[in-house]
Backbone:
């Protein structure tokens, strides 16, 4: 037997207002419930969700790729936050907002766009190696061979399949790596 959210009476009688979120016994209780802070917060959240879904429908493919890439790079930087730079081996510096580290792609996003979200292709490196030395690829490859093995590195280098990410795939990638980043951050902080 469900109870009314406002008066705590039975909400199973005829004329009761039932929803999966709240049960109310009468119209008067419904009016009182609308004036509470929790109801106003629910209404505001529903409005925000409606606006968010409208904005999501208007996003272009490049905007979705950009958001997915941001989530993926954040995951890589959290995953490798305690590890040294993959290219030069310099130790991780104190984590500053904005960061001193980049998510460095072994095969660049322009030359292999199908590998841009592949976790074996992307490792954390210092900004100096990634930005100013174009990835510092010779030591990068040596470190990858040590980490993954020669077969996996050659498989990455020979992977030339074409792929175009769909809108739903990009949304899934974004949510997946956002969740993974939260999990990694939670266990890193413990």
Residues:
């Amino acid at each position: 037997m469900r109870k009314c959210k406002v008066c705590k009476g039975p909400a199973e009688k005829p004329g009761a207002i039932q929803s999966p979120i709240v049960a109310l016994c009468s119209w008067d209780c419904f009016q009182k419930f609308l004036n509470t802070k929790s109801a106003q917060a629910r209404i505001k959240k529903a409005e925000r969700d409606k606006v968010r879904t409208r904005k999501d429908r208007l996003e272009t493919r490049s905007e979705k790729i950009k958001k997915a890439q941001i989530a993926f790079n954040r995951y890589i930087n959290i995953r490798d936050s305690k590890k040294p730079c993959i290219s030069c081996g310099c130790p991780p510096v104190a984590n500053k907002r904005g960061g001193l580290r980049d998510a460095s792609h072994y095969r660049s996003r322009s030359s292999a766009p199908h590998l841009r979200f592949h976790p074996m292709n992307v490792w954390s490196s210092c900004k100096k190696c990634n930005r100013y030395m174009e990835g510092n690829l010779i030591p990068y490859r040596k470190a990858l061979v040590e980490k993954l093995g020669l077969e996996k590195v050659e498989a990455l280098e020979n992977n030339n399949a074409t792929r175009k990410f769909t809108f739903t795939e990009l949304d899934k990638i974004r949510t997946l790596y956002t969740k993974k980043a939260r999990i990694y951050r939670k266990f890193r902080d413990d």
About this structure: The chain has a mean pLDDT of 86. Strands lie at 17-18, 23-24, 101-105, 122-126. Helices lie at 27-34, 37-58, 61-79, 127-132, 137-148, 150-158, 167-189. Residues 167-189 form the longest helix (23 residues).
